Structures are given as C-alpha cells and as structure tokens.
Amino acid sequence: MVDENIVDENTDEVEETPVETFDVNYACLRCATVVSNTELSRLPEIKCICGFRVFTKVRPPVVKTIKAV
Ligand SMILES: [Zn+2]
Questions:
Q1: Per the confidence metrics, is the pTM higher than 0.85?
Q2: Three-state DSSP state, 69
Q3: Average pLDDT of adjacent 10-residue blocks, the chain of 69 residues
Q4: What's the pLDDT score for residue 59?
Q5: With contact defined as beta carbons under 8 Å apart, do 29 and 39 qualify?
Q6: Which helix (H) or strand (E) holds 42?
Q7: pLDDT value at position 11?
Q8: Are 26 and 37 in contact (CB under 8 A)?
Q9: Pairing, β 34-36 against β 25-28
Q10: pLDDT of the residue at 4
Q11: How far apart are CA 5 and CA 52, in angstroms?
Q12: Cα separation of 8 and 12, whole Å?
C-alpha cells in the first residue's frame, strides 16, 4: 500500500477579470457632461446629448488623505 500524500499547493494567484461594480463615469470632451457607464450602456450608441462621441474616463473620487504641499 502506497500512502499517497498529495498536497495541492497550487495556490498561484490567478488574476481574474475584475468585476466593475462601481459606477464608472465618463465626461464628454466637448460639453463636459458626465455620464455613467450604466447610462451609456443603455444607449444604442455611445454618444453624448450634444452629439459628441469622445469621452474621457472620470475616476471616482478616492477617499484618501493627501497632504497639500
Ligand atoms: Zn457632450
């Protein structure tokens, strides 16, 4: 009888696709209207109310204490 001690130590950190649960906001480059990605996904096409289609990603405000220099 062979005592098989199989220790599964394959604990490689597998990076899974992060699920974005937070709202990502986009700002129109032309009129600066901020639209959330949920709002954009509801639209048939990514387009601002002004007709412009170029958006910049707006980072959600990070709660962090930054010392003003
Ligand atoms: Zn716009």
A1: no
A2: coil
A3: 68 65 86 92 90 89 73
A4: 77
A5: no
A6: helix 37-42
A7: 63
A8: yes
A9: antiparallel
A10: 72
A11: 63
A12: 11
CA of 46 to the centre of ligand 1 (A): 11
Distances (CA, A) of 46 to 9, 33, 49: 46, 13, 10
Residue type, 42: R
Query: Tokens at residue 60, please?
Result: 């959600």
- Could you tell me the two tokens for 26? 């986009």
In whole angstroms, how far apart are CA 35 and each of 9, 25, 26, 50? 45, 6, 5, 12
Q: How remote is the CA of residue 48 from the centroid of ligand 1, in Å?
A: 5
Q: Determine the distance separating the centroid of ligand 1 and the alpha carbon of 69, expressed in angstroms.
A: 34
Ligand 1 center from residue 58 Cα (angstroms): 14
Does residue 28 contact residue 54 with C-beta atoms inside 8 Å?
A: yes
